[in-house]
Amino acid sequence: MRSLARQAGACFVESRPSVQLVFLLRFLAGTLLGVAAGPARPGNVAVVAAGWTCCTMAIYLFNGVADREEDIANASTRPIASGRLPVRSAVTAVGALTVTGLLCAFSVGIGSGLLAVGYLLVGYAYSGPPFPLKRTYYTCTGAGIGLGLATYAAGFLAGGRRPDVSLVIFAGTMTLWMGCVGGIAKEFSDVEGDRAAGRRTWPMVLGNTGARWLLAVVAGGIATGLTVAALLYSAQLIWCAVTVLLGALGVTVAGLRATPGEDRSSRRRPYRAFMATQLAAHLVLAASL
User: Fold this and answer.
1) 78 — phi, psi (to 5°)?
2) Which 3 state secondary structure label does DSSP give 282?
3) CA 110, CA 179: separation in Å to the nearest integer?
4) Is the peptide bond before 130 cis (omega within 30 degrees of 0)?
5) What one-character DSSP code corresponds to residue 67?
6) What is the CB neighbour count within 10 angstroms for residue 250?
7) Any alpha helices (H) in the chain, and if so which ranges?
């Protein structure tokens, strides 16, 4: 029993708790924004949220299995790469989480269920054969955008909402933040393992300096776009826009300091700034509604 509990804990750590929290906040943002299309359905929201979390954990746990060799090359301390979580146990957990997630989603409705199926397929395609989307910078970014949009859609569908301008602006902007800013920021610390695995990431294609400047331009552009859209069309998103502007500044500073000679932890500063920004933006949204 203790061994099972340890492996369950290792699976949770491997699935990256901070990432799970952000995906849950994306889902909840979808339930809060938009126009009510009927009576509130808190039971449906809770069931689909639980199922969506299971699906997200399955996706990231499967990614840990697929990335084992790269993570070892990058000196990662995650449970699979460090040997604390056997691959067989992780694969078993992926299957259990997938089934549980789909059962929860389909129990609420065919729409939520099919959306969960598509979400899992994109998640599998990101890491799995025959052509892992993580292999090239453009397919990696596209997959991130797809996963983000699906999560917001799952939220407003479970909550019985219809999209409005605030949902479109916020979900669209934060999805671009996830796919474009995150797609660049996460690569600086993993160049060695990615090169060994034959991946073509932004730092490899543009060089470290080019990727750092691209990160600054993209982060600033997305933050500016959100600010302009909020000022013109959705005043309730103003504080979210301010949060993302400050976050873009932090990402830019961290990115421009991410030099190849630093240790891995230091090179992860752009990613940590990216994650902190999207976490803060969603919390500010919840507080302002």
Assistant:
1) -65, 155
2) helix
3) 27
4) yes
5) T
6) 18
7) 2-14, 17-32, 42-66, 68-73, 79-82, 87-108, 110-127, 137-158, 165-176, 182-185, 191-196, 202-233, 238-256, 264-267, 269-288
Q: What is the pLDDT of residues 110-169, one digit of tens each?
A: 999 999 999 999 999 999 999 899 999 899 999 999 999 999 999 989 988 888 999 999
Q: Please, are residues 1 and 43 in contact by the beta-carbon 8 Å criterion? A: no
Q: Which two tokens stand for residue 68?
A: 């084992």
Map residue 84 onto helix, strand or coil: coil
β-pair type (161-162, 35-36): antiparallel
- Specify the pLDDT at position 201: 85
- What are the residues whose beta carbons fall under 8 Å from the beta carbon of 255, sequence distance 6 or more? 184, 185, 188, 212, 215, 216, 219, 270, 273
pLDDT at 37: 62
Q: Hey, which residues does 162 pair with through a beta bridge?
A: 35
Global pTM reads: 0.93
In whole angstroms, what is the distance from residue 286 CA to residue 85 CA? 35
| Residue whose C-alpha is closest to residue 150's, from 121, 116, 174, 188 | 116
Sequence-distant (≥ 6) Cβ neighbours of residue 133 within 8 angstroms = 122, 125, 126, 127, 139, 140, 142, 143
Task: Name residues whose C-beta falls within 8 Å of residue 158's C-beta, 6 or more positions apart in sequence.
Answer: 27, 30, 31, 41, 44, 45, 47, 48, 49, 108, 112
Cβ 234 vs Cβ 34: under 8 Å: no
